[in-house]
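Researcher: I'm preparing a figure for a lab meeting and need a structural model of a single chain. I don't have an experimental structure, so a prediction will have to do for now. The sequence is pasted below. Please return the structure as tokens so I can convert it later.
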Amino acid sequence: MPIRVGIIENQPALVLGITVLVNAQPDMTFVGAGRSVRELLSAGTTPDVVLVDPAIADSQAQVASVTTLLSRGIGVLIFTDGVHARHPSELPEPGGVETVRKTDPLHRVIAGIRAAHRSRSGRPSVGAETRDPASVPEVSLSPREEEVLELYATGATAAQVAQALGITRNTVVDHIKRIRLKYIAAGRPAFTKVDLFRRAVEDGLAPDESV
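Model: Understood. Here is the structure written out token by token.
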């Protein structure tokens, strides 16, 4: 069965380009587009992989979109033109989320779709409450992301984190966004600041106040 591909995007020209590219692959078929997860899935055919343009929604909406797709067993390819795009191999496992730039060669976009399709297989349900602590999937944060998470999760505002680290507030917000996406990809979503604190405690980046 071919890989069914959808896209969340609001630019018709880009949707058309992805449609042509996907349908030219012998193992893929394009099944639809929408400006949101709800609009895409309401068409009736459930995709195996969805390309998500992070530019069409704010950070919180993007996290919610990715979580909804992963919870339905749908692989996600973040399709970004931002300067913070990461190579798919830098994302933690188990996955379901891959990343490519819109400026990447077409073969990388196709490879990203296939990788997202492969990595969604056998992944645990997002938000599962029962988990063996010894088997909690690790999340690979950069040293700067660890600094941001430690400060932000333990009570500092984004502005205070920015001042402490000598960076802009927007940079802090970008770091928090990427941190949340990494935790989603690992099956350990962190939607709120309290959730981020719990993840920081689990990963040894913040003291456990219950001890």
